[in-house]
Amino acid sequence: MSGIAGGRAGASPDLPWRLRLWFPISETITGACLRRDGTVNRRLFSFLDLKSPPSDKPANGVTTSDTIVDTSRNLWFRRFLPTESATAAENLPVVVYFHGGGFVFRTADSKPFDDFCRRLSRDLPAVVVSVNYRLAPEHRCPSPYDDGFDVLKFIDENPPLNSDLSRCFIAGDSAGGNIAHHVAARAGAFKFRNLKIRGLISIQPYFGGEERTESENQLIGAPVVSVEGADWRWKAFLPEGSDRDHPASNPFGPKSGDMSGVKIPKCLVFIGGFDPMKDWQKKYCEGMKKNGKKMKMIEYPKAFHSFYIFPELPESRLCINEFRNFIYFG
Fold this sequence. Notes:
This protein has 330 residues and is α/β, with parallel strands linked by helices.
């Protein structure tokens, strides 16, 4: 585990010039999409949310295809398959992946997550199943948890091409890391026919609570995530009338049940030193350990929230290397 990063109000990491230009534009548009009445201006966000279509022709060594699970709720997933493994008819581990976006934004075909899952599929290598779950505020908790669990049941009965379901890992970033945790907890109580879940991987998982942590108070002005924006998203996602100590957001908080008997596989969590949510992520890791779960935490002191989707950053490459080691070597 890496060292602990400090921070003061207004602290921010050193960024490449492209990101220094992009973040203010992105954050301004995203903030404008969050209306005061609790709704989202999806038309405005669509100008920011570039899409990648599926392709049976290899791009960066990976082919993709989309599979519909339930048309009534637009539940589908994108499968990523590295071409070298497909040519060799090799069966690979399966990574069921949940994208980030604060429960409110992005889809499985959003370009940043299509690019990231493509890198995962090629570099691990693995069959990646990226879930297109329902978004808040139109669909509140537990909608994405239901969607994720239903995709697990679907692929248990309909294995993706070249997949080894006996080596399945549930993973996600940001809000997707939260979803991955809750889906894994549900899956632990279900008897699958073919699927065996070997691990849980969360990149900067989106957790919170009513308490204000030191990192939330100190990392004002950090890229991508703000306390105010997170509060808006929790209000949009959690059941009506709930506060941030709801078990969905604070799984080891005062309103959560006993997790010691919940079957969850070994877990890998990534934390960034410039992420205002890092203290909640550390509380999550501590709660998992106290409840007898096998847990490994990796902290990158210079990383900000969503660092992993930028391949030019060294921490992004390190993250994928750790991903690979966890899947193949435990």
